[in-house]
Amino acid sequence: MPERNVMVISHLWTTNTICENYCDGIKENSDNYCFVDYMYLYIKTGKKGFERKIEGMIIEKRINYIFFILGSSDLTFDINFIKKLSESSFIVMNFFDTEYFFDSSDKYYAQAANLVLLPDYLSKFRYELLNINAMCSFSLFSKSRYSCRNNLEKNIDVSFVGSLLTKNRKEYIDYLVKNNVRIEPYGEGTSNGYVGFDNMLSIFRGSKINLNFTSTNADSTLFGLNIKNRIKQCKGRPIEIALCGGFVLSEYAPGMEKMFEIGKEIDVFRTKEELLQKIHYYLINEKERDDIAGRGHERAIEDYDAKTAFAKIFSNINIYAKRDSNVHLDEDFIRNYATFRFLYIGLFLLNRKYKNAFEEFRVFLKYRKINYRSFRMHCRYVAAIFFYKHKRAKNILRNILGLPKYPYDAPSKAELTI
User: Fold this and answer.
1) Residue 393: is its pLDDT beyond 80?
2) The predicted structure's pLDDT at residue 418
3) pTM over 0.85
4) Among 40, 199, 304, 396, which residue has the least CB neighbours within 10 Å?
5) Top-level CATH class of 5-140+307-319?
């Protein structure tokens, strides 16, 4: 059996460890492993330099599998470059929020892949309709990062960790408070504020009931349409809670019954009234609550530990021959890809790499199409990064310009482990 010489192209965000979990799982199942922080390398070398570097590494290290673990709606890469890589290597692409970005970006990049990994069960059928191999893995995590401490005292009745600025969440929390539920919310827009990773795990372990919501503000995304606010998303948070041994009470999303068995491994609600009723029920019925949490923990360990999941993926990976080598592009994607160049133009200018900024501008001129909504957001993000480096002006100008609180991470200083 040939060696698994694997390259992972990703970026390790400081505010989210999900990509790190995937990288851990892939590395554990590789004979030779090579990680590329694509944002760091792209900023360092520019488009042409980046592509030459990747191609050289593939030849030097005899790479036969390439995993793209990218941020949602990321349009860094030239599809023709990925298609060229697919001629010599097996390409796997993971799309985290494909429910929202399938039409604007994901389905186009997927054409260059042998296999698409998804955290959403229903979305895989959309790729199958396009004659693209797709597998639902749900979200994967390294179980070593999430320990279960059964003897930890559960001194929080109900908790929620996440932003209250997202659609309907504050309405649900206020309803519970009005009905005398002792709930502790943590995150943006809450009185407790943002909590770090370790504190978040302690909250999961120390709560009798952990809430999860499945709505997202689609109109705040780069290519959002208001109709997407109807989407309920199978998030990774229930898996994180279950890995810690916590009891999950989640807003329902289609496909969630494929992630966990409802009523046996987690439970769900669909309305405020049903949420309140189930909170009262599970606060009283401690044994049933703990039994469900225990079975959920076992399921999470078995199916959603990254090392175990990627072992299963690799064991069957070679059955996924690319079905169609043609790549079809439409005007909307071309417009979004061309507009995305302005994010890198701004980042290159901030780093005084004027030649690379001009290179990106030439790509834009090739297509001469622009998505003005995305253009404005890219400008705001670049401005946010600039003011992040000039902290005195940051707070004042954020209020004036309406800058986002958590912009794209500035290029990391992580070493390329190559």
Assistant:
1) no
2) 31
3) yes
4) 396
5) alpha beta
